Amino acid sequence: MSEVNQPVLLSTFLNGKKKVKIIFHKGILVWDNESPPLAQQTVPIENVLSVQHNYLKGIHPSVQKQIDPNQFTIHYAERAVDDKWAYKTLSLKHSDPLQVASWIKTLQTHLLKFTSRPRRLLLFVNPFGGKQNAMQIYEKYAKQLFIISGVDVTVNVSQRKDQIRDFLISHNIDMFDSVACVGGDGTVSELFNGLVLRECRIKRINANDIHQNLPKPSKPIGIIPGGSTDTIAYCLHGTTDPTTAVLHIIFGDVLGLDLVSVYDEHSLLRLYASVLSYGYLGDVAYHSDQYRWMGPRRYDYSGFKKLISNKGYQGEIAIYTDKKEVEQEDCRSNCNICDDAKKNQERAVCRWETFRGKFFMVSGANISCACTRSPKGIAPYCHLGDGKVNLVLVKHTSLINNLRLLLRLSSQDASVEDLPFVETLSAREFCFRADNDVSSKWNCDGEVQHQTNIRAKVRCQLLSIFSRGSTKISGDKSKCCGF
Ligand SMILES: Nc1ncnc2c1ncn2[C@@H]1O[C@H](COP(=O)(O)OP(=O)(O)OP(=O)(O)O)[C@@H](O)[C@H]1O
């Protein structure tokens, strides 16, 4: 739209008893702040959820609600601290109904331009994960915001493990423009595994053939955290705050997330989004599942037991890479590296390289795997959509070094990367073969995977996720008391 055609609205309204001068120009709303400091408030139209007439008060509930022609409300979101977004409103009153109508019409017309905002959302709720309160999370944080924003939500509560995945593979979901879930990483994993396999079924693609290009699901995904760790939600949004996750869905902006497909000799085992871990974390996942009644504390209990036992696993790792060194660049919202990855991945000249050893843990991280318990994650410089995994190899050493590793993982400031017994490599594909009979399990997005010898391949930006990304920086690399 040329500048001449850009509408300019300028009016003075009443907000409660206070006069508010508000202007809308070039897609930006500006008004005076209600209370000191008397700064101006600026809200770009892309942060506005909806603009609606208010209803007249004092009418008996049996009488149909009547619109108040003199009042309207702007529902909007504001970025708060630490990547969190907050929901806010501004109610405005004017004696002239034409003023009110003109503002509502202009703002609503602008909002119609955001065609990627979801309108008909299929939302899965896992009542089993985390604190078993996913339904309450939906009712408390999501339901009202979706109503306000005009998103028609169909809720599907899962009754058993893998039901979400099976539903998506076999049911017609053409009536929805987007899909979301309330749950932890296991729930998100069911969601995207179902969507990709569904697409393979429709397009008659053999998902078990590693050489096939997997099809991109046509519907974007929303992720509302409701699990124990919620690593995927944290890495995408920079927080596990449910309101923020809901607002990211309503905004309708998407970012591309890589998925990794994991195979044994014969078939596709599953796709993962966060991490595939062998050794320590595989053992913890296998062991902790028996203690689910403990809630999130089961990870502390199993983690401690497995740490003390300090098992090492002999194996061979082969990586397929064009550049194995990891660049120390953060993946933040509007990341250039992820933007370029899609264009350049075909051009990458890769070769296989092999490593052998005895490992405490081997992890193929697809994202940094940061979460509230591990603010930097196991792979702080791993990107969401660069078509690569960071392979973190932790050698089998002493118990004291295992403790150093765990301290680094839970540290705000230091990361595992510069520990002398940790090596991080960048790869587009990797293989693992266990050397002898003593083998561990794989932990795949928090779920136990029993096959030991696997091959994994990154699928660049296979998913579109509703998120504006995180602004967090991995920051300074101070060592945790030199430990
Ligand atoms: N109705 C259900 N009954 C039992 N299990 C279910 C049901 N619905 C989903 N599941 C399974 O519950 C498991 C745990 O769910 P989820 O991963 O969301 O929670 P979590 O493990 O507490 O969180 P996180 O993975 O973030 O630590 C997953 O394996 C999922 O497939």
Attribute tags:
4-stranded antiparallel beta sheet, alpha+beta, NAD/diacylglycerol_kinase_sf, PH-domain like, 483 residues, disordered C terminus, 11-stranded antiparallel beta sheet, 24% helix, Tumour Suppressor Smad4
Low-pLDDT regions: 476-483
The top level CATH class name of the largest domain: Mainly Beta
Shape: elongated
* Radius of gyration, CA atoms, in whole angstroms: 25 Å
Describe the secondary structure blueprint for this structure:
Elements: E1 8-15, E2 18-25, E3 28-32, E4 40-44, E5 48-55, E6 67-79, E7 85-93, H1 97-112, E8 120-125, H2 134-148, E9 152-157, H3 163-170, E10 178-183, H4 185-203, E11 221-225, H5 231-237, H6 242-251, E12 254-263, E13 268-272, E14 275-279, H7 280-288, H8 297-309, E15 313-321, H9 336-344, E16 351-365, E17 389-395, H10 399-409, E18 422-427, E19 429-434, E20 442-444, E21 447-449, E22 454-466
Helix pairs in contact: 2-6, 3-4, 7-8
The chain binds adenosine-5'-triphosphate (ATP).
Provide structural commentary.
By secondary structure, the protein is an alpha+beta fold. About 25% of the residues lie in helices and about 35% in strands. The protein contains 10 helices and 22 strands. Strands 12, 13, 14, 15, 16, 17, 18, 19, 20, 21 and 22 form an 11-stranded antiparallel sheet that branches. Strands 1-2-3-4 form a 4-stranded antiparallel sheet, with no helix packed on it. A 4-stranded parallel sheet has the order 9-8-10-11, sandwiched between helices. The longest helix has 19 residues, at about 185-205. This is DAGKc domain-containing protein. Pfam families: CERK_C (PF19280), DAGK_cat (PF00781), PH_CERK (PF25382).
